[in-house]
Design goal:
The complex is a heterodimer of chains A (291) and B (257). By secondary structure, chain A is an all-alpha fold. Helices cover 75% and strands 0% of the residues of chain A. Classes of the chains: A mainly alpha (291), B mainly alpha (257).
């Protein structure tokens, strides 16, 4: 039987929605599972899979009670604050330093005599830092940090995350500044503004959306990091992901309800960031930079 | 955790290429190299195919666009250590929902992470959950930048959907595909957090990538010299892989024209 054009169009649209819905379930189900596991009693976890609160198990806030107000409270507060301090300040540092480098790479001509490098070569050299597997660079970090007594300190971790994020910031902001019209700055310079004034008064306000998106990405990288924290901290400057990882490797087996609550506390800020950066990403800002 | 870095200060002495000689004869290292390579090829292929599919679905006039975009982006934003634990719960053979759902659908029970042969593909699946979104956004941006006239012309000429995809969309997406696959492959070689939390390299060493081996040698055994040699070997692997990948594509592009 022949289908009419219209019918086949509608069939195709229907199929699209079915597939989109399936993919959305695939993406969101693990987060749903974390949420419902965090409100299960141990017995409900070990009885086998239970999917719907109130219907096939009785929810309880016992895990949240312990994590937020009970025996884990102090540790959780400390790690969460550590993560927040180190992620926000390293992201701010990286954006400040990196955007200046990105600006300079679009407005001045550099020439490295011995190597005959120009701006593009410099920019590539900067991004190439990101291609090294972190395991390769972490070993020299350990040696340097021990020498400088930076192991397990907030300052050390902020420094490490800043350096880790810098290439990304330089690359993205360079792209962003290259797209800004140069006339505005030039007229400001003619009116007697200094280069630095032109940068802070004209260029920066124009690039606020780009700066915010880049900042949020740096925040995300630093917050989500596991390797640097594993190698360079052990107690004082330890972070939330490390706490989650440590919680699961206890000798009496993982306590899934606590793990789920802690995991949710760890990913909650990232969910917020995802909501905030979605429009920047789909506008092609960040994507444009890696093409 | 062991922090015995005493060899660093006390007994450091020059051994020439000694660490690299050890490396070449180290069966465990070659196994980790194999694991890393299989993981990179498998995971990135899976992510590319899924990412392209989802990007094509999103590149249409649809409702609830913002909801779908946020939902589809979310996985790549989440902390890998937490994702790995969620994975351990979901794939758990006794209390995890995945096998349970498969059983309700009448399928067999799958020993996801306890079977040495299946553990690596299972890990790829988890990695695909987290990183397909990255492929998706880049390919979606690529799709949206394609000129519309070409598609309209093809429609007027009566090309089928598959013909449009095979002869127009896909060829025009090749440049951005090369970039995004290469970026993902470089990232996949760095695989560390997910595998460390999820399997710790096990069962046995079935899922142990080079990165984890370097970590174990350097931090657990305190042999930073040998760990550095392993890290260098990984760097060489990454460079060779990228060169082969780019060269073969260039040759294929040249042959196609």
């Amino acid at each position: 039987m022949q289908m009419s054009m219209r019918q086949s169009q509608r069939l195709k649209l229907g199929l699209t929605y079915v597939l989109l819905a399936l993919w959305a379930i695939f993406c969101l189900f693990p987060i749903y599972w974390l949420i419902i596991t965090s409100v299960k009693l141990p017995i409900a976890v070990f009885q086998g899979p239970r999917y719907l609160p109130w219907i096939d198990f009785q929810p309880s806030l016992h895990a949240w009670q312990d994590v937020l107000f009970g025996r884990f409270q102090d540790e959780v507060a400390r790690r969460w604050t550590n993560s927040a301090i180190m992620a926000t300040s390293s992201a701010a540092l990286a954006v400040v330093i990196g955007s200046m480098a990105g600006y300079a790479l679009t407005r001045f001509q550099y020439f490295v005599p011995g190597l005959k490098w120009r701006n593009n070569d410099l920019a590539f050299w900067i991004i190439s830092q990101r291609m090294l597997p972190p395991v390769v660079i972490i070993l020299p970090y350990i040696i340097m940090f021990r020498f400088l007594r930076l192991i397990d300190t907030h300052a050390g971790m902020i420094l490490a995350y800043t350096v880790f994020n810098l290439p990304f910031v330089v690359w993205i902001m360079r792209d962003f500044f290259a797209g800004l019209p140069i006339d505005l700055e030039e007229s400001a310079l003619i009116d007697g503004a200094s280069r630095f004034q032109a940068f802070t008064r004209i260029v920066l306000p124009l690039s606020t959306p780009g700066l915010i998106a880049t900042y949020l990405f740096c925040l995300m990288f630093a917050w989500n990091d596991y390797l640097f924290a594993l190698m360079l901290t052990f107690s004082r400057a330890s972070t939330m992901p490390m706490y989650v990882a440590g919680m699961g490797s206890q000798s009496y087996g993982p306590q899934w309800w606590y793990l789920s609550a802690l995991s949710l506390l760890t990913i909650a800020p990232m969910i917020l960031i995802a909501l905030l950066v979605e429009r920047y990403i789909t506008r092609g800002l960040v994507v444009g930079a890696i093409k | 955790m062991s922090w015995d870095l005493s060899r660093l200060e006390g007994g450091a002495y020059f051994i020439g290429l000694g660490n690299f000689v050890t490396l070449v004869n180290d069966a465990r290292f070659w196994n980790t190299a194999r694991v890393s390579l299989i993981f990179v090829v498998g995971a990135v292929t899976l992510e590319y195919v899924l990412g392209l599919g989802v990007a094509m679905l999103l590149n249409q006039q649809i409702r609830f666009r913002r909801f779908f975009r946020v939902a589809f982006l979310l996985p790549m934003m989440l902390t890998p250590a937490a994702v790995a634990y969620a994975g351990r719960m979901l794939f758990n053979e006794g209390m995890g929902p995945i096998n349970d759902i498969i059983r309700h659908l009448g399928g067999p029970q799958i020993p996801w992470f306890s079977n040495p042969t299946l553990a690596l593909p299972s890990l790829m699946l988890l990695d695909a959950w987290e990183w397909t979104p990255f492929m998706m956004i880049v390919l979606l941006a690529g799709l949206q930048s394609l000129p519309l006239e070409v598609f309209e012309a093809a429609r007027v000429d009566g090309a089928s959907d598959w013909q449009v995809f095979r002869h127009i969309t896909f060829p025009m997406l090749v440049p951005v595909s090369i970039t995004v696959v290469l970026i993902r492959a470089l990232e996949a070689f760095k695989l560390f957090d997910i595998v460390t939390v999820m399997t710790g390299g096990g069962p046995g060493t079935a899922t142990e990538p080079v990165t984890l081996y370097a970590y174990l040698v350097g931090m657990k055994n305190g042999n930073l010299g040998y760990a550095s040699a392993i890290a260098y070997a990984l760097l060489v692997m990454v460079v060779i892989f990228s060169m082969i990948f780019l060269n073969s594509l260039r040759r294929r592009a040249a042959a196609g024209e």
